[in-house]
Prior knowledge:
single chain; mainly alpha; 0% strand
Amino acid sequence: MKRLYGSAIVIGLLIAGCISATAYAKGPGHRGGHDSLLPPIVRHMVSKSHIHSVMASEKANLHSAFGAVRTAKKQLEDDLIAGKDPTGDLATLQGAQNSLLAEKVTVAQKILAKLTPAQRTQVGQFVTQYRSMNETQRQQRMSLYQQFGGAGAAEQGQ
């Protein structure tokens, strides 16, 4: 029984460690997700301490903006379910999303301000090649879907 209990604890700790390591590796900026305005290469050109200091200085504003978007989405959802007119909710959500975008732009500008002109050129080249690669992959996915009769999914670019 002790052995089983000990094994369960070890497995739980390993899973928790893997999850936290994955989250940490993705870095700041919505965990480096699709909403980040910074190309991934920037995180390798700017010091972690600079990124952390910018994020710390904008943390309250970002939390507030994310909270406003979350609240507006919930209100819109509640009103849609209740059959109410969502016009006011849409305006509130759009305003909250615009404020959040403005905060993200501020963060990106502060982080990018540390780049030299040569680094900015490198980032521009990276972005051009990265977008080209993504477009090529999208076209390959569409071709694959069409090959297997998934025209509907191919049209959606999934």
